[in-house]
Amino acid sequence: MGSLIRPQRQSSDISISFPSPSLVVYQSPESNTTIPKYSAASHTLELKLLHHYTVMTSKTLADVNTPATNEAWQVTVPSMAFDAPCLMDAILAVAALHLRALEPSDRSLVSASHGYMASALSQYSTCLMNGVKSSNAEALFVTGTLIAFQEAASRRFQNDGKEDQDGQEGYTLPLQWFHSFQGVKAVVLISWKWLRESERVRPIIQAHPPLALDLKPEQPKFFGYLLEGLNEQLETIDQSRQVETRQAYEHSVAYLNWAHQNPDRARILGFPAIVSRRFVELIGEKDPRTLVIASCFFAMTKAVDDVWWLQGIAKSEVRGIISLIPAEWHNKMDWATRVAHHEAPMDEDIWGGSLPKDGLPKAEEPCIGDLHSHIDILANLTPSLD
């Protein structure tokens, strides 16, 4: 396992630009940590992390708990990693972060998680710049997915030991959460001609249901209040950006309505990948409407936070967002605040709608085609890297 150790390098934000869409891969973790090279201790650490991944962490990554998805994460992905160093380092990084959640007093796990992820990012970035091809498409897709998991999970640790002048936890917008999941979407679209034929990653991709969004509902749906006053707001911005801004709002709210009707993990966590680039830009601009919409997404994770990497996310993100928006928008945060701070099992009164009974999913909305056919359409609109 010693060959898996690579020297740590100083790095800043890693950005990869494709013809379309552009992709920001990830915000690098602190890079002042190193992992011992070619020592007995490092061998033991790697074996410990890989064992923990296969026995524990892999079981927490599947959005849908089926034998096929569980086997993909537990058996297939580690097997792929022996031929893909960036994927192996991503596996070790996520396993170290999971162990950190279980053993918070072990500070060596902080160094391990940061160090392996920095190494994974460096190699992942290089592979993307050199071109996605049939030989690396599967590994790059799974590596990108693990990077997104790492970014999501890291939010719960980002304020460890950091406080602002008032003694309260500082809050930064979760831009990298969105960038990393957007990056997975970009890799899927660019490499789809290979991924669509892959039996190894099919269970992971098929765990996500095809979209059935109602972009122009005849009657306002549950989150319709998030679009109140939209026409008046759009009149205040540059005319050249009005159409894409409207689409960013309406599409993201349609997604929330769809996920709210049947709140499973796959649906809810698809939000950061599905929203438009314009929506992510608006988050960076601290646009109040966009932040309120994002707060509803984070509140939804409360319904599926039975996995370590989502625990505490809903409350911390909703609380942080409300601290950034003007007071006149606070009433739009009522639902998100109520759900995020709910400590008992989620019920219909708090959720504001029916929930599946006894773990049984509700009937699916009518949908034309399956997930593969949906991605086929999108991939045909995405330039290749060939």
Features:
2 strands; disordered C terminus; disordered N terminus; 386 residues; 2 domains; 52% helix; mainly alpha; two-stranded antiparallel sheet
Quick structural gist:
This protein is mainly alpha-helical and 386 residues long. The chain has two domains: 2-206, no CATH class; 224-368, no CATH class.
Your description of this structure?
With 386 residues, the protein is mainly α. The chain has two domains: 2-206, no CATH class; 224-368, no CATH class. 52% of the residues lie in helices and 2% in strands. The protein has 18 helices and two strands. The protein has helices at residues 40-55, 67-81, 85-102, 108-130, 137-154, 175-190, 192-195, 202-206, 230-234, 242-261, 265-269, 271-274, 277-284, 288-300, 313-322, 334-340, 348-351, 371-380; strands at 14-16, 23-26. The protein has a two-stranded antiparallel sheet with strand order 1-2. The longest helix is centred in the first third of the chain and has 23 residues, at 108-130. The protein is globular and about 60 Å long. It starts with 13 loop residues before the first strand and ends in a 6-residue tail after the last helix.
